[in-house]
Design a protein that fits this description.
It catalyses: L-aspartate + H(+) = beta-alanine + CO2. By secondary structure, this protein is mainly β. The protein is built from two helices and eight strands. The chain has a single domain, classed as Barwin-like endoglucanases (Beta Barrel), CATH 2.40.40. The longest helix has 7 residues.
Length: 113
């Protein structure tokens, strides 16, 4: 988490490069899990400046994170059983500077961030 902006309507701002890498869309609903304090919340994505590394929680949810917190951003999809059996999620792991460190086709047990 690079920023928390309380004085904003809502949402999470994510670097456009990271959005594309993770297949996140503008206005897509996401769940945010804060690994530092256990908080969980839902919001929607807005596009941040490309290449900036920004991940900023906006609005009232900003009270649940601090810059430097490690968060997990989860997007869900509805699909048929058949689609779900062949679906491969995309897991993007970032380094401390919010640059892509690893892109996985699925979450591996005991993956360390």
């Amino acid at each position: 988490m690079t920023e928390a902006n309380l004085n904003y309507v809502g949402s999470i701002t994510i670097d456009e490069d990271l959005m594309e890498l993770a297949d996140l869309l503008p206005n897509e609903k996401v769940q945010i899990v804060n690994n530092n304090n256990g908080a969980r919340l839902e919001t929607y994505v807005i596009t941040g400046p490309r290449g900036s590394g920004v991940i900023c929680l906006n609005g009232a949810a900003a009270r649940l994170v601090q810059p430097g917190d490690n968060v997990i951003i989860i997007a869900y999809s509805m699909m048929t059983d058949e689609q779900a059996r062949s679906y491969k999620p995309k897991v993007v792991i970032l380094d401390a500077a919010n640059k892509p460190a690893q892109v996985l086709g699925e979450e591996i047990h005991a993956t360390i961030m």
